[in-house]
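User: Please fill in residues for this 320-position structure.
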């Protein structure tokens, strides 16, 4: 049964502009807190963007998203799901990353999420750039590789950048496949678009059996048909969901480092997350929100609204 300690603070009890901001106004539970074992879904910040290759800023994403998430209320207006009554949810704070050392930060992120796995917590993470997903997957992948549903304008399947840099926000899922963390036959990447350097990433996807659904196909087929296929591809086994905010058209989400025009609008961005219903979500992340490019917080608010949609799916399938 859900513990009332894990219910968020209501805007009827404390104004949304006041109090200490946590994700969705949930209680904060530290990684060493005894209550961690009671948490079922943990919201985590990964304030790290050392994998960024052009416009930095996602390291500031978790803080802005926490602040904007005070607008999240108890019930999903579209589905009626009340996630905080279905699962014990808490803000588990930020991973203590090292901004001066990429490899050390990768190790720190993996160590942090391994503790969550031991405690039986399913993580919902706010990045950070997309390289954050790799160390999380290292912590979560067990005897069987995970499936992956990725909403993105880029594949992030490149071999390397700048003559041999293997760890950037453009390489995490190439590494994850190579390391056996992901099953390429249970991977689908949705919304891919924009200009390209070459076909290397797409050639790798084809050779490994990764399903790419580019934006033209997404538009031609419609959301429901595409998401039906995505659910079929991952099946009922454990799946990780990764959502890059640049999946959304920059008219609706300008606060990101590598925007690509021609994407979905904010309503469609929420819909595809809602259509994850039925997926066995082991964990998820929302990455690449970059506050310097949208100081007003609109992109961050869209980001946490998408996180809430994913949280509703995770909580509704928890069996709590």
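Assistant: Residues filled in for all 320 positions:
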């Amino acid at each position: 049964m859900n513990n009332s300690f894990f219910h968020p603070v209501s805007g009827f009890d404390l104004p949304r502009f006041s109090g200490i901001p946590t994700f969705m106004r949930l209680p904060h539970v530290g990684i060493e807190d005894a209550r961690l074992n009671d948490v079922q879904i943990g919201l985590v910040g990964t304030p790290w963007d050392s994998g960024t290759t052009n416009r930095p800023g996602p390291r500031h994403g978790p803080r802005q998203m926490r602040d904007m998430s005070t607008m999240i209320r108890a019930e999903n207006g579209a589905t009626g799901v009340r996630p905080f009554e279905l699962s014990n949810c808490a803000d588990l704070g930020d991973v203590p990353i090292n901004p001066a050392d990429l490899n050390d930060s990768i190790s720190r992120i993996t160590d942090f999420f391994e503790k969550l796995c031991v405690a039986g917590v399913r993580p919902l993470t706010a990045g950070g750039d997309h390289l954050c997903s790799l160390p999380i997957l290292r912590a979560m992948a067990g005897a069987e590789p995970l499936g992956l549903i990725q909403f993105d304008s880029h594949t992030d399947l490149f071999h390397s950048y700048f003559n041999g840099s293997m760890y950037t926000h453009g390489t995490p899922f190439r590494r994850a496949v190579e390391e056996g963390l992901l099953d390429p036959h249970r991977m689908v990447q949705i919304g891919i678009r924009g200009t390209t350097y070459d076909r290397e990433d797409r050639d790798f996807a084809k050779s490994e059996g990764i399903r790419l659904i580019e934006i033209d196909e997404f538009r031609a087929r419609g959301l429901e048909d595409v998401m039906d296929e995505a659910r079929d591809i991952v099946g009922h086994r454990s799946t990780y969901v990764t959502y890059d905010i640049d999946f959304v058209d920059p008219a609706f989400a300008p606060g990101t480092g590598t925007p690509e025009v021609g994407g979905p609008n904010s309503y469609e961005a929420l819909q595809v997350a809602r259509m994850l219903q039925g997926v066995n979500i082991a964990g998820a992340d929302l990455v690449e929100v970059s506050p310097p490019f949208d100081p007003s917080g609109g992109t961050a608010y869209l980001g946490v609204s998408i996180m809430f949609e994913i949280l509703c799916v995770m909580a509704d399938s928890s069996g709590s």
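For context: The longest helix spans residues 298-316.
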